[in-house]
Amino acid sequence: MQSYLNPSATVKNLTRVQTELVRLQRSRMRMKNLERKQDTRRKIQLGGLVKKAGLDNESTAVLLGLLLESKEKLEEEGADKIKRNWQIKGDIALTLEHD
Questions:
Q1: pTM of this prediction?
Q2: How does the average pLDDT of the chain come out, rounded?
Q3: Please, what sign has the CA dihedral across residues 49, 50, 51, 54?
Q4: Are residues 34 and 53 in the same domain?
């Protein structure tokens, strides 16, 4: 017999769908929570880099200006060389920190 004619089968189907919906909602909440934690961790790491660079006493406006100017430099022609130099300098600083 068709399930739409069978109330018992319809209730079972509805229950199964509701259970799956709850499972998916929980999964979505776990994913959002994980994404939020990853975002928070990344922000903390970026703040740590500001401190490691010795810029933690600078004003927020100075830091933002510095970052904006750096971004502009990375958009200019020849930015690959600048980026490589910055990366080498950063790698050295991070290596020395671990020694």
A1: 0.69
A2: 93
A3: positive
A4: yes
